[in-house]
Amino acid sequence: MDIKILEREEDKVRMVLKGQGHTFMNALAEELLSDPSVDVAKYTILFQFSEPELFVTTRDGKDPIVAVQEACARLTSQCDELLEQVRAQSTA
């Protein structure tokens, strides 16, 4: 996945996540909002074939890039857990 940072400040970031759609962006925004240090996490896709733009603001001095990295790690962990359970059920 390619990203392009459009704007970055101490407590906010605006970035484009090339090649992603609503499915991933919804999951990422929801996971970001589960972090109490994240104030705003939203995305926009202006046109059907445009790249999504993610906007994140944080509080308490948390770096918004770190918040995105942590949210992605939690999503990865959840997917790995689901895969393990599916594999266990398919061999049972």
Explained architecture:
With 92 residues, the chain is of the alpha+beta class. The protein has a single domain, classed as Gyrase A, domain 2 (2-Layer Sandwich), CATH 3.30.1360.10. It is built from two helices and four strands. It has a four-stranded antiparallel sheet, covered by helices on one side. The radius of gyration is 15 Å and the shape is globular. The termini are far apart. Keywords: Cytoplasm, DNA-directed RNA polymerase, Nucleotidyltransferase, Transcription, Transferase. It comes from Methanofollis aquaemaris.
What characteristics describe this protein?
DNA-directed RNA polymerase activity, DNA-directed RNA polymerase, RBP11-like, alpha+beta, 28% strand, 92 residues, protein dimerization activity, 2 helices, 43% helix, single chain, Gyrase A, domain 2
Q: What global shape is seen?
A: globular
Structural class label:
alpha+beta
CATH class: Alpha Beta
Q: Give the total of beta strands.
A: 4
What is the total number of structural domains?
A: 1
CATH topology: Gyrase A, domain 2
Tally of separate helices? 2
List segments where confidence is low: pLDDT < 50 over at least 5 consecutive residues. Answer: none
DSSP helix fraction: 40-55%
Q: Encode the helix/strand succession as letters.
A: EEHEEH
Side-by-side strand order of the widest sheet: 1-2-4-3
In CATH terms, the superfamily is RNA polymerase, RBP11-like subunit
Gap from first CA to last CA:
35 Å
Family: Belongs to the archaeal Rpo11/eukaryotic RPB11/RPC19 RNA polymerase subunit family.
GO cellular component, one term: cytoplasm
Main location: cytoplasm
Organism: Methanofollis aquaemaris
